[in-house]
Amino acid sequence: MTGLSLTPRQEDRAIALAGLLGGLVLIATGAYDNSGSVSPWLAVLPLCAMAGLELFRRTHPVWTVCLGGLVFAGNIFAGSVLATVIMYTDLLYAAVLYGSKRMSAILHLTGAGSTLVLSGLTLLYGTVSAALLVVVLGGLVFIAPVWTADLLRRHRDEAVAERLRAQQTALLSEMDRRGAVVAERARMARELHDVIANHLSAIAIHATGAQSLARRQRRPDDDPLVEVLAVIRENSVQGLTEMRRMIGLLRSSGGGEGEEESYAAPELDAVDSLLENARAAGQDAGLAFEASEEGERGLLAVPVGLAAYRIAQESLTNALKHAAPGTVRLRLTYGPEDLEIVVDSPYRAGEGRVLPGARAGLVGMRERAALLGGSFEAGARGGRWLVRAVLPRGLATAEGKGRA
User: Fold this and answer.
1) Fewer C-beta neighbours within 10 Å, C or N terminus of the chain?
2) Where are the transmembrane segments (predicted)?
3) Using the 8-state DSSP alphabet, how is residue 99 labeled?
């Protein structure tokens, strides 16, 4: 159950209407001062004027409280109605709450002065008890609402200040956190560049030198040593390329010196370039490459597109390393629920081609598929080597593309 919610304008109207109706009831029943000698219509005029001022208690607090003082004085002489007095105290309250900060001090001084003057005149022309009664009434009418509004305004200002301070603290904490992340990413980029990337460069250089030495020694291309050197060089160059991309990602995201471009996750749109590179590299080995797509590609989530790209990349790379001369076929099938990647290549049997770390790529592809809840299989079938991965499309989003 929700409570009644009024706008500030509606609240002012409700206060004015309640005061007016309450005052009319008091006048109708004769519950006001000098009711026997003062005409009811004379008491209605200050009541209506005070109710009209209530409509502007927020928008024009200074004018309403000044005019309200005159109406209050007229109310005393015309026959004091309690509703008119209460509405005047509300005008004092609103003037402090919604007016300038100086209004509180001004109304405190004028209220205290009015109470002092009225009580002094009563003491001069009346009794001590009447003067004390005037002091009490003056305090309730002139000072109490001003003091209450002043206290409420101070608490409100303190609450606003505390809220701003909390927001500033949260902002500073977030800036510190981001600064720490930026510093850590920059440090990681430096470590990767200065240590790991340099080691990979050294491995690639030494492998290239060893290959040159093997060629000078006229070793055949199918020599296991030559093949191992080729695998070492190729993997080190690939690792160095990926390492540089990751360094670019860390530096661009971390606010460091962005020497490399931002790392963009590869997608299936780049498979054509993979095939072109594979055709160029496989010409001397008698390898041809074909690709086909079935179904509507639609929108693919970034993790699915990246995993499919990596599986296709690793499968083509393995075909270049191990396949017999012939045609390597890549087929991408886009179903409503999943994406199937199939790569089959001519199978060359024999243990002599098993190289150190040769199955690390298969393990990586199986792990990529498993992380997405898909399946993966690879093996020899009917004289060909078949790699098949099925990835669910359930991760697709409205954007479809993005950065990984």
Assistant:
1) N
2) 14-32, 38-56, 63-88, 123-147
3) S
Can you give the residue ranges of every domain in the chain?
A: 8-169, 265-404
Quote the DSSP letter at residue 193: I
Q: Are 353 and 270 in contact (CB under 8 A)?
A: no
CA–CA gap between residue 86 and residue 88 (Å, rounded): 5
Quote the CA–CA distance of 331 and 375 in Å, as a whole number: 16
> Among 3.10.350.10, 3.30.565.10, 3.20.20.80, 3.40.50.300, what is the CATH number of 265-404?
3.30.565.10
Distance CA 94, CA 146 (A): 9
User: Residue 330 — φ and ψ, nearest 5°?
Assistant: -115, 125
Burial 59-97 (b: 16+ CB within 10 A, else e): ebbeebbebbbebbebbeebbbbebbbbbbbbbbbbbbb
How crowded is residue 185: how many other Cβ atoms within 10 Å of its Cβ? 18
Output the pTM of the full model. Answer: 0.46
CB 247 within 8 A of CB 189: yes
Residues in the chain: 404
Could you give the CA distance from residue 104 to residue 151 in angstroms, rounded to a whole number? 10
